[in-house]
Amino acid sequence: MTTEDIRTYDVIVIGAGPVGENVADRTTAAGLSTVVVERELVGGECSYWACEPSKALLRPVLLRADAQQIPGLDAALKAPLDTEAVLAHRDLMSSDWRDDGQVEWLRSAGIELLRGHGRLVGEREVAVETPDGGTVRLRARHAVAVCSGSRAALPALPGIEDLAPWTSREATSARRPPPRLVIAGAGVVGVEMATAWQALGSSVTLLARTDGLLPRMEPFAGELVTERLREAGAEVRFGVSVTAAERTPDGHVRVTLSDGGALTADEILFATGRAPRSEDVGLDAVGLLPGDWLATDDSLTVTAVPGDWLYAVGDVNGRALFTHQGKYQARVAGAVIAARARGDALDTGRWAPHSSTADTEAVPGVVFTDPEIATVGLTAAEAERTGRDVEVVDYELGYLAGALQYRPDYRGRARVLIDRDRQVVVGATFAGPGVAELLHSATVAVTGEVPVDRLWHAVPAFPTISEVWLRLLETRRDS
Fold this sequence. Notes:
Elements: E1 5-14, H1 18-29, E2 34-38, H2 44-49, H3 51-67, H4 83-93, H5 100-108, E3 112-115, E4 117-122, E5 125-129, E6 135-146, E7 150-152, H6 160-163, H7 168-173, E8 180-184, H8 188-199, E9 203-208, H9 219-232, E10 235-238, E11 242-247, E12 253-257, E13 262-265, E14 267-270, E15 274-276, E16 310-312, H10 323-342, H11 358-361, E17 365-367, E18 373-377, H12 380-385, E19 390-396, H13 401-406, E20 413-419, E21 425-431, H14 439-447, H15 452-455, H16 468-478
Parallel strand pairs: 1-2, 1-6, 2-3, 6-16, 8-9, 8-14, 9-10
Antiparallel strand pairs: 4-5, 5-6, 7-15, 11-12, 12-13, 17-18, 18-21, 19-20, 20-21
Helix pairs in contact: 1-10, 3-4, 3-8
């Protein structure tokens, strides 16, 4: 007779990506015993198949694009990128897909790791199938946090299983550039991977169902990215989608398009959205539908499960699909779990410690294309759709001395949205080389609800691109 392996902790975390790690860090720091369950690599999607490898591919591309415009450097950069060196750097930044360092960090933080596939089996209970075929049953005194993330959502095309298409995972971990790459999708993954692989030697065709790239952002952002992709040699088509695709006997991909056209490529990347990794975490055991996004309130508590013990943090809740936003949620959830464990009342007001208000008010994001796109808060279209009364103020970044130092042919634009009643910034978009470093100032302005009159006294250094803040205020004053 064998004894069932039952272990009890204060907190159980399913998923050891950046979000799960941060939940566990916060609960452990609060004195709660915490175990993290992970079936793949500790560090999750971001470390191995998303943020880290994609930016390692893109950083050399963007640096070279900037340097090619600088007198004294331009002639030295006529040769193509050293693709092998870029891919080797990508491998280094992805830790060669080994998680030893991340595992050591968990240990140093006092967090226990259990390898295996965790599924909810009841209230505060998780069963873990371990790699050796065994089962460990975990019980939580206080909380279970589902931090299982998201996965690429593939279109429902006939025979897609046999096609073996690229998703974001293959696009960030490929060993060599495919000679011809078709990318279906006009969002962040699509445009970033088009930027990277075109520069690394692929002939890229980017297909967008919409009439522009980055359709959820200000239109000028997508227009600038389209212009630069075409200048780099990529083909960008609008108003077209993939209706069929098949892998030919010689290993190529034959693509049929909605406009009746056809393409032949070596690989096809579907960058057509994300789906929650919730199909196999035992949601049915607690009355939820497997495969759904896990709806939460601002404390990250799953609203459909009574008892305030189940949390969904990060991509799996669908609130804001960014690593940095998931880590923010993790800090909030950790504080909520610790407060409830102590019996403290929650403070869930707007911008309060136990509320993830930024998920709806001030989500920052950067698209690492040429040019970079940085956004936070509302766009003009979102403000109109939601009935917000805003002033829209634009400024051409190429007029700035700091921008011209960056690139003599600098092309870019800035836009801020100002709430007419409250006279605070509620949205900002920057499009241009190097604008990612402008984003945090905009995020502080939005979350801090800094009065526009006070921004006049935040003096930007000269000559920097940050001077755009002054120019935006002057434009508004003089309009």
